[in-house]
Design a protein that fits this description.
mainly alpha; 74% helix; flat
């Protein structure tokens, strides 16, 4: 029964990773399409919004950007923890 539960949990983890990866991929697309690097590096002083764009699409794009940041932060922290635990004790 424990093995069955472990397999079920593994499926949810895999599904969560795939959903996160797809969200991050769309976030990268939005980052490039909306030219966010220009705003982040202050090359453009104003953010020009398209008022003809639907609100749903606007919020979806910004949620995808937020998902990208969350995905990068989560897996970077996971990688850093894994790299930190691999060091030898007492050695420098």
């Amino acid at each position: 029964m424990a093995a069955k539960r472990h397999m079920s949990q593994r499926k949810y983890q895999t599904a969560g990773f795939i959903i996160g990866l797809l969200t991050a991929a769309y976030g990268i697309y939005v980052f490039i399409k909306r030219n966010f690097l220009t705003y982040m590096l202050l090359r453009s002083e104003f953010v020009f919004l398209d008022y003809e764009e639907s609100r749903f699409k606007f919020y979806l794009d910004y949620l995808a950007l937020m998902g990208l940041c969350i995905f990068l932060a989560h897996y970077s922290a996971k990688l850093a923890r894994k790299a930190g635990s691999g060091r030898k004790e007492g050695g420098q």
